[in-house]
Q: What sequence folds into this?
């Protein structure tokens, strides 16, 4: 039984999933074994210049500089490691000849020049190898030499830019002259080379560096929120301590104007995105996040970089991985995402580029430049250049410690102006952070919509800086100490220096005002940091790849180094950017008695008009940004109007009505156009078109008291926005009083058969009058225990609600109820109560049918056809499931809850064994049964399900 078969039928309740492979696996990985001969044989065809021309003499050596790790200091040295220590992932990085370097620089510029024939003409790794890699003959010589020294060659790059190998510390000392020592840094033991490595002089023109001679790793760039909302306060998502709001995917899409693109079908479909990490993950967290926020039921493909160590679950890295995958997938909800991981996150980046896995790569890790070996920084740039040539856009977080990036690394207490690698690489887009600053304006609804969103529209931003003494938390930015300023980094505000400046762009990043909701470790957590900006923007770039293909701007996905165009657009399409002009990323550094390389003081930059080293070019209006990218006109940023709501009557009975009027006013003399949607608790009450002139327009709807709950109800008015004005909104409180008296119960029945028969976990239907003030339905799972001010309890246990109206309630009988017992039933409708009792059984099967008693969804079938029916009252299931809960999407078929009692199906008197019987994903208290229609029957036949010896009332099936 496949997952697809289990989820078939009831299309309005069950989402289909695709089992297709999203990304190529290791089948394209170029292993070294047997490859040297292939390269040598192909050399004459490629006719690439060999640069290793002298004999390989181990006695004649060349020193490779820049490998000393800045944290591998004499004071931290704990002596040489054991010679048997394994160094499992070393890489011989190869460099280009001067002519190759010049040709590559010309190509990268031409690929971003619309007037060039090479514009957006991306290379394959093999094409890159033939133009900018080492020759097959040189690869063979270096591979043979490594093998002769006792190393194991594990892989050769498709681009012929590196050779990976493994070995021991003893072999490294003998062959490369590098002594590996232990270093104790901030209580952690690491190993690193205490001397620069050497290679045979014959390799000097080809080998650039050796990576993997230390085990220092980059740090994640995320910040946790100080308080997580308690379960009783969800899903309002308003912090009980600060009053701040927390960001759902729907909020992010509203604030940054992505929703118009979703409506137009730009959602990531057909696109690929790589998220790099250094831990395994629990896929259930991603499934829970996507289900909770009504995102498509798609999960990432997970892949360990071949030939590297599996780190298992790293608790220090798991929140970062979950955050990256959830936010990248939230921005591009239909994209295919590959989570590529290793014990070193940069191994994942290296592999993704070499294998050309996706046109977008996101990484939320970094290390400050003063604590990064120069050889590593230059190696990362070489990867980025190859990625750009292949059409890859690499997005990275700029750091969380303002202008003094090293104090975030937790290892050295360095205090100096510094920026973060890899964000500082010119071929990488560095993402900084902003913080919402709404002031006295009304930017959030008091209630959530069905997607848990509550933002009305764009919220003004300042520089993210939540730093406190000893705890930096600010947008990383400043001037690189390693990389020179690229020619494209120009424009108002760009510093007049010779350095690469970061960040390039920013998005909201404050964990405190307002943090992102993330599911990690099975729990809802709140996070911020430039870690949220990087995957979010990577998702936006993924949408942009789809957009340019859909609009016919280019024939295939891939944008390469987008920085070239970013800085040009900032000067020609200012309306696509939100220029951040308030705040700073200044952090204060104090130096302890043992701190080295530490200069106390304040480090950072003020925001200003145009570019600044706190937020770069600012944030973007995504819809306008895409329009400008494809050559459309974007005149100026949209203004945010004010919205007020009035009611003809602020207090009505549940049988009355009132007219709500929204007034949308501009601040610049124009008149807003568009529509206003009114809603209560995420349920729509009506939409009206604005009408007016002279800077103000109105829209009205009439609302019935039956649409609301008794008590004080907050109603939201959401303005849609137009070409000149951003979306905005406001709320009003209406008081509803009950128009009828005490509720009454006319009867209780099985929710499927509408007959007597009730079992724990099953659906119960209650008929009566004055049971609810209006009609309300559950919009998500787990099911709510209150709808429209109505609650139901059985034996004192609050029951989940599917649906409530004045005359009918549908509830789930809690699994905690005893079987074969008489239980109490109490209904409370906004303060008015009624009580009754009913009897339970172990099982009480009832089949869901249409009004004529026919099976749903399959009323007809043919002999041998496999069909599904749905029933309730199956009693206990295994594995057990919480009352009101449903199996999450993606649950393996073998792990779905199944009835404990034996179950058979009888069709026209013929008993058949079901192929599957269990609760499918997203259904509560409902069992799906798949069975084959027996042969030898025709016409209308009775269908009965027997569970544990108890038969259901019959349904009918027409056999053709």
A:
């Amino acid at each position: 039984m496949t997952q697809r078969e289990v989820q078939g039928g009831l299309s309005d309740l069950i989402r289909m999933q695709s089992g297709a492979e999203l990304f190529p696996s290791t089948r394209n990985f170029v292993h070294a074994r047997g490859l040297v001969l292939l390269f040598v044989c192909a050399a004459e065809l490629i006719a690439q210049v060999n640069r290793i021309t002298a004999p390989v003499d181990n006695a004649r050596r060349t020193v490779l500089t820049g490998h000393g790790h800045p944290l591998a200091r004499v004071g931290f040295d704990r002596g040489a490691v054991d010679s048997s220590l394994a160094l499992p992932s070393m890489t011989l990085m190869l460099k280009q000849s001067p002519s190759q370097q010049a040709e590559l620089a010309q190509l990268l510029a031409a690929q971003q020049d619309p007037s060039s024939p090479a514009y957006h003409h991306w290379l394959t790794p093999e094409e890159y190898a033939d133009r900018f890699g080492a020759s097959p003959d040189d690869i063979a010589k270096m591979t043979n030499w490594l093998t002769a020294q006792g190393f194991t060659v594990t892989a050769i790059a498709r681009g012929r830019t590196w050779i990976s190998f493994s070995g021991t510390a003893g072999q490294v000392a003998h062959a490369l002259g590098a002594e590996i020592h232990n270093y104790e840094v901030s209580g952690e033991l690491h190993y690193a080379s205490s001397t620069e490595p050497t290679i045979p002089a014959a390799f000097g023109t080809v080998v650039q560096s050796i990576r993997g001679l230390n085990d220092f790793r980059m740090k994640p760039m995320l910040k946790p929120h100080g308080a997580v909302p308690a379960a009783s306060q969800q899903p309002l998502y308003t912090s009980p301590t600060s009053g701040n709001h927390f960001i759902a995917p729907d909020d992010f899409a509203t604030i940054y104007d992505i929703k118009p693109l979703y409506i137009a079908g730009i959602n990531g479909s057909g696109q690929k995105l790589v998220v790099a990490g250094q831990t395994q993950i629990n896929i259930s967290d991603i499934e829970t996040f996507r289900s909770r926020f009504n995102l498509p039921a798609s999960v990432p493909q997970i892949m360990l970089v071949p030939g590297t160590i599996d780190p298992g679950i790293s608790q220090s890295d798991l929140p970062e991985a979950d955050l990256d995958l959830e936010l990248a997938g939230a921005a591009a909800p239909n994209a295919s995402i590959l989570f590529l991981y290793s014990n070193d996150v940069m191994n994942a980046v290296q592999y993704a580029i070499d294998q050309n896995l996706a046109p977008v790569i996101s990484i939320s890790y970094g290390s400050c430049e003063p604590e990064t070996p120069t050889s590593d920084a230059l190696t990362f740039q070489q990867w980025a250049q190859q990625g750009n040539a292949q059409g890859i856009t690499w997005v990275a977080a700029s750091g969380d410690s303002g202008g003094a990036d090293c104090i975030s690394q937790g290892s050295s207490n360095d205090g100096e102006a510094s920026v973060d690698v890899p964000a500082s690489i010119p071929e990488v887009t560095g993402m900084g952070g902003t913080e919402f600053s709404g002031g006295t304006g009304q930017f959030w609804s008091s209630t959530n919509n069905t997607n848990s969103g509550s933002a009305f529209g764009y919220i003004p931003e300042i520089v993210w800086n939540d730093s406190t003494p000893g705890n930096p938390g600010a947008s990383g930015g400043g001037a690189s100490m390693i990389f020179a300023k690229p020619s494209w980094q120009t424009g108002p505000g760009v510093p007049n220096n010779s350095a690469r400046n970061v960040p390039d762009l920013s998005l909201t990043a404050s964990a405190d005002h307002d943090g992102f909701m993330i599911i990690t470790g099975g729990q809802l957590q709140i996070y911020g940091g430039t870690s949220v900006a990087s995957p979010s923007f990577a998702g936006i770039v993924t949408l942009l790849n789809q957009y340019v293909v859909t609009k016919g701007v280019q024939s295939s996905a891939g944008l390469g180094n987008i920085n070239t165009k970013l800085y040009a657009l900032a000067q020609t399409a200012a309306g696509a950017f939100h220029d951040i002009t308030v705040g700073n990323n200044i952090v204060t550094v104090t130096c302890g008695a043992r701190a080295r390389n530490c200069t106390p003081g304040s480090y950072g930059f003020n925001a200003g008009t145009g570019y600044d080293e706190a937020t770069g070019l600012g944030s973007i209006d995504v819809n306008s940004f895409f329009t400008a990218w494809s050559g459309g006109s974007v005149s100026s940023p949209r203004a945010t109007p004010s919205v007020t709501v009035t009611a003809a009557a602020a207090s009505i009975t549940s049988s009355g009505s009132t007219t709500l009027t929204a007034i949308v006013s501009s601040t610049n003399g124009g008149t807003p156009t568009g529509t206003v949607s009114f809603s209560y608790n995420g349920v729509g009450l009506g939409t009206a078109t604005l009408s007016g002139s002279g800077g103000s327009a109105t829209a009205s709807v009439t609302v019935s008291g039956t649409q609301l709950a008794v008590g004080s109800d907050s109603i939201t008015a959401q303005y849609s926005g137009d070409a000149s004005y951003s979306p905005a909104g406001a709320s009003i409180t209406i008081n509803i009083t009950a128009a009828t008296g005490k509720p009454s119960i006319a009867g209780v029945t099985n929710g499927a058969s509408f007959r007597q028969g009730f079992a724990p976990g099953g659906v119960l239907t209650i008929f009566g009058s004055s049971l609810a003030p209006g009609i309300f339905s559950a919009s998500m799972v787990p099911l709510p225990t209150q709808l429209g001010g109505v609650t139901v309890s059985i034996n004192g246990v609050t029951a989940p609600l599917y649906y409530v109206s004045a005359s009918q309630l549908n509830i789930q009988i809690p699994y905690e109820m005893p079987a074969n017992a008489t239980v109490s039933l109490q209904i409370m409708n906004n303060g008015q109560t009624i009580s009754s009792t009913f009897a339970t059984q172990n099982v009480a099967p009832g089949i869901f049918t249409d009004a004529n008693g026919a099976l749903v969804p399959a009323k007809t079938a043919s002999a041998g056809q496999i069909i599904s029916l749905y029933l309730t009252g199956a009693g206990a299931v295994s594995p057990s499931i919480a009352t009101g809960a449903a199996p999450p999407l993606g649950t393996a078929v073998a792990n779905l809850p199944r009835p404990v009692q034996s179950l058979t199906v009888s069709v026209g008197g013929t008993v058949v064994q079901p192929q599957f019987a269990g609760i499918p994903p997203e259904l509560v208290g409902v069992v799906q049964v798949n069975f084959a229609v027996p042969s030898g029957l025709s016409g209308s036949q009775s269908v009965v399900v027997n569970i544990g010896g108890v038969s259901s009332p019959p349904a009918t099936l027409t056999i053709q």
